[in-house]
Amino acid sequence: MKKVITYGTFDLLHWGHINLLRRAKSLGDYLVVAISSDEFNKIKGKKSFHNYENRKLILEAIKYVDEVIPEHTWEQKVEDVVNHNIDLFVMGDDWEGKFDFLNQYCDVIYLPRTNGISTTQIKKELAGVK
Ligand code: C2G
Q1: Is the CB of 122 under 6 A from ligand 1?
Q2: Does 44 qualify as catalytic in the annotation?
Q3: Shortest-distance Cα residue to atom 4 of ligand 1
Q4: Tell me: the pLDDT tens digits for 37-75?
Q5: Which residue lies with its CA nearest to atom 30 of ligand 1?
């Protein structure tokens, strides 16, 4: 069984996230998604609309997602890859190159981001900011 992992906040879930999750799952048999905790979001400089529990609930309902784990730190990826027997690490290419150090432990692939949608854009447009 080929296991894939990806990381993110996945707030205000949108079709860009779904495109990423669908492609990540298509590259293996089992997809683990590590969702940033609310505390880690603060470290990332993000404030999510939905809290961790609700973002986890939403992601667990997606057919491409097999398991959801928490992301608490930048440093946990090697441990996650080893402990979960991960074969492939996938991220959107806005992270291109940032996680190449994982190549010692698993394959690393950056997928093209979906243009025209982002959680930030959704928040701005809903707030009436053009
Ligand atoms: N994404 C995408 N297309 C978009 C928006 C997001 O492909 N239009 C991808 C991102 O590249 C990322 C994933 O969807 O791979 C989740 O995006 P975010 O929730 O914004 O995650 P991020 O804040 O980038 O957190 O340790 C890694 C971080 O936790 C990644």
Answers
A1: no
A2: yes
A3: 16
A4: 999 999 999 999 999 999 999 999 999 999 999 999 999
A5: 8
**Distance between CA 130 and CA 118 in Å, rounded?**
14
118 in ligand 1 pocket by Cβ < 6 Å? Answer: yes
Percentage with pLDDT > 90 across the chain: 98
Task: Order across the sheet with 88-92: list the strands.
Answer: 67-71, 30-36, 3-8, 88-92, 107-111
Q: Contact, 29 vs 66, CB < 8 A?
A: no
- Distance (Å) of CA 31 to CA 38, 45, 47, 89, 94: 22, 26, 25, 10, 20
Residue 89 Cβ inside 6 Å of ligand 1? The answer reads: no
Radius of gyration of the chain (CA): 14
Structure tokens at 68: 């959801």
